[in-house]
Amino acid sequence: MKKMIYDCGHGQRWANFSGDYNPIHFDLTAAAELNQAALIAHGMRVIADVKNHLFFQEEKPNHQYDGTIRFSAKFEKPVLCGTQYKLINNADNTKTTFKLVDCSTDISRIRGSVSQATLPEISDLIAEEIVTSDCQNDAAERWPAEIERRFTTFLSSVMFRALFNTPDLFHEHMPVHSLSELLSKEKVLQTHYELYCNALLLHRKEQSIEGLSICIGKPFITGDANYGWVIQVQVAAKEDETTLMHISVTLKVTTN
């Protein structure tokens, strides 16, 4: 069982890496507007810790982590700064389940599973970007020192970084154009996160990939400006023409 606790320093270092300066991570007033009494830790920052622990620190049964891995997480409640959490996981013959629990209340904040699956294809491609070695090295230099830079965790975070900074991600019916602009202007919480990758990536040592491209899919959006939106974004990483990883993130946007 792993213990976790987050503070403003974790948030600042993750924002410096990802570009995510959503006020709910730095401004108590913004967090209070979402009925939270403390700053909210970055969801992707927490997920990096969870993935590192489940993929690389725990003893895994021999049958697991072959072929394509599906890592799925549901954010049941925000993870707050200054609160200690424990990561509890259990493995059976088909999958590993986990939950991140408040140590003082035993209330679950994140719940999910790791299992085998089929690697999906990205749908409705709207952008593709070549990520040069220089860009990958810049990301490595900005990587928070307290997070072990495992290849799988690092690549998934680089993908989120690229998605976060993609211009013209949203269509004309949204009041903003990019994910970074959305998070700076609206109250946004992550609700779901799904990662698919080849299990061979868990053993890969390189931190830079020649021929790495990031493919962005057209977001799926429901809702409106009066009641808020639910947005699912998707991104894939390819080495030459081979898909290495696919991620989808679901966000809930509150406008009032």
Automatic annotation (TrEMBL):
Domain MaoC-like: 14-95
Signal peptide: none
Family annotation (Pfam families): MaoC_dehydratas (PF01575)
InterPro entries linked to this entry: HotDog_dom_sf, MaoC-like_dom
Protein known as: MaoC like domain
Higher taxonomy: Bacteria, Pseudomonadati, Pseudomonadota, Gammaproteobacteria, Enterobacterales
